[in-house]
Specification:
Rossmann fold, 2 domains, 33% helix, globular, 6-stranded mixed β-sheet, alpha/beta, 5-stranded parallel β-sheet, Hypothetical Protein, Haloacid Dehalogenase-like Hydrolase, Chain: A, domain 2
Length: 273
Amino acid sequence: MPLSPSVRLLLADVDGTLITKNKVLTDRAVAAVAKLNKAGVLFALTSGRPPRGMAMFVESLDITTPIAAFEGALLVNPDMTIIERRTVPSDLVTPIFDQMASFSLDVWLYRGSDWLIPNPKGPHVDQESATVKFGPTVGSNLRLVTDGIVKMVGVSDDYGLVEKAAAAVRDRFGDHVSAARSQPYYVDVTHPDANKGMVARYLSARYSIRPEQVATIGDMPNDILMFAHSGLSIAMGNADMQVQRAARRITASNDDEGFAKAVERFILHEPPD
């Protein structure tokens, strides 16, 4: 008996979901997306990454749908031309910067194609550079850079502080921005309409697909926002309990082919391994 209604679109997170912990796109994941294409199921990506940080997936996965970067703050075509842009309200950038800095978080800014950071030796700078395949620009007094900011990121290896900072930003600015953890060590702040729930709604409308025919898959709290706008929501095995409780199905971890297994079992209804 099928586990879901007929799925016409799968919207997938990238880090922690589509790729492994070591940022590898496996052959089985590529094959799973090819099976979706053959079955007539659209495949789309959404991530906190900048557009350039997802360009490497376009050819290998034969992406034809819009790519939602910065949690949906920037929607681009597969050739990286811009469809829509949503920026953080300029009058809120400095107070949000100060709010996150008060929790001892480094604050990164993304503006246009620029990634601005205060400290080149700060946590996760080298890792992020390797992940997105380009480096940051180091700036001074970034709290005064307020125009055209598509995403702000608070960074710390104290996960408890990251969660507290995310809650503080939501409590103080929640009517005007979206704030959610995209990794245990990141809190992403974007325009209020720039979140993965919006991305799911946008794609549903663009392709005239009913929400119940949309599947979503992710591993972090910011993915819960898209779960609510899909008929089939899938949490990764590496997701925490908050995310798993919000999903209809749970697959294996991203280091155990969880993405491919979810496609094969829950969408294409192939026998499990």
